[in-house]
Amino acid sequence: MTGAKTHPPFKSFSEFWPYYLSEHRMARTRQLHFVGSSAALVCLILAVWKGWTFLGLALLLGYGFSWIGHYAFEHNRPASFHQPVYSFLADWKMWSLILTGRLDQEFKKLEGSICKH
């Protein structure tokens, strides 16, 4: 993993989004995020339907898969540690873009503006 990075404060989600994409350059990391978020969503549905014990599993699967991607493949620190709200929102934005097949377009659109902090 690379050394600790200092991040400037992000004033808005739209300012954070290019940074978030820059931390998810590897397809494997994005795939693990998608699997973890999907599993977490299933667990949330099960929690409502079957019982609240599935909430812990939702957190474990959602964050577990994502963090494996960051530490094992991307070699960076998850944004959820320093920008938890924006990171949570960005996780679901990325999930929906993957689901609809539009994430590659988003990378191309933001290619010139992705910041490298």
Chart the SSEs and their pairings.
Elements: H1 13-22, H2 27-50, H3 54-74, H4 84-99, H5 103-110
Helix pairs in contact: 1-4, 2-3, 2-4
Describe, in plain words, how this protein is organized in 3D.
The relative contact order is 0.20. The chain is built from 5 helices and no strands. It has one domain (22-110). The protein is mainly α and 117 residues long. The two termini are 15 Å apart. The longest helix is centred in the N-terminal third of the chain and has 24 residues, at 27-50.
Summarize the structure.
This protein is mostly helical and 117 residues long. The chain has one domain. The protein has 5 helices and no strands.
User: How many distinct beta strands?
Assistant: 0
Largest sheet: none
Which regions contain 5 or more consecutive residues with pLDDT less than 50? Answer: none
Terminal-residue CA separation:
15 Å
Radius of gyration: 15 Å
Q: What is the count of structural domains?
A: 1
Key phrases:
mainly alpha, 5 helices, 117 residues, single chain
